[in-house]
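Input chain follows. Return structure tokens only.
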Amino acid sequence: MSSNGDAAPKDTSKQTLSVDTAATTEEVPISLIDPDNSQLDGSLVPIDLGQPERKPRLLLMGLKRSGKSSISNVVFRKMAPQDTLFLEATTTIKKESMHSFMDFQVWDLPGQINYLDPSFDADSIFGGVGAMIWVLDAQDSYMEAIGRLTETILHLQQSYVEIKYSVFIHKTDSLTDDFRQDTVQDILQRIQDDLYDAGLENPPISFYPTSIYDHSIFEAFSKVIQGLVPQLPTFEALLNTISATCRFEKVYLFDVLSKIYIASDTTPVNLAAYELCSDFIDVIVDLSEVYGWDREKPEDESERAKDISSQSAESFVTNIGGYNLYLREINTYLAFIGVSKESKFEAEKALIDYNVQIFQDALNKVFVRP
């Protein structure tokens, strides 16, 4: 069923994944059909999904009142941005365990504590960290924050070289476009110069202008999380194939709980289309809470009941700001979204359904969540 401007879910019920705690290494062949009847064949690189107990850790650091707790609550607790104004200052380390497409932890560290002090057990905080996010308030004087950041990076690089660093140049929503660009460039240049002067060339650091009042914070977090996903190259290869085959302009693999996309094809991100996809997920999740049902154990053992219980939620909408959006539930945690401007999108939907089903089957075999 299609709609013109409104999401029309075919099936928004929930699906339970099979549990497989053993390490698996498997080669999964895929075969997709394109609309021109040409055949695209490929195979996945074997991926070892072992070490199921390992939980990557993500640190949120920065000076006090820079916006760390607000970011954590908006992204992972679905708090409305305006409600973050009433959050109390963080005085202790807050640890959030996220159970989604993969298990990982988010630690919100108070900004008034010097974690480089010898009296702290550095290994208990920084050992096993996959990424560190430094939140920098762009509306405030940022020289002290830059000094603390460069000192932290230089200290950690001596013992924890595997950590990846990201700087969220935060609260940029109230800045004019020209001033925002100048501020971001000034911060980036100062940090790079300070690290270079200290002898650290080409550090693993990325910069993102962010705000909790738009989708930029989810875009930035998506890039950070992607650095923790070992299967990312395989996901991107699969998504490139499905995008070319079905003539999608852009395809994403979203974590429906946080609206972070863990992978996309390698074409540039269109922020307007990404915002539509993010809002689309909100609609589907809201509808599934009302109309969804548990398909884990159908009481009726008939073939029809088994077929219904095995279906994935699916929805597509046409002509929203010139875009067509196609959503398919991959499993309980992940959803595939394709963005298209093709005028023949509806006419070719059956073929798209087939190709996406093949993609879904291959992805579920590669990415088995314990």
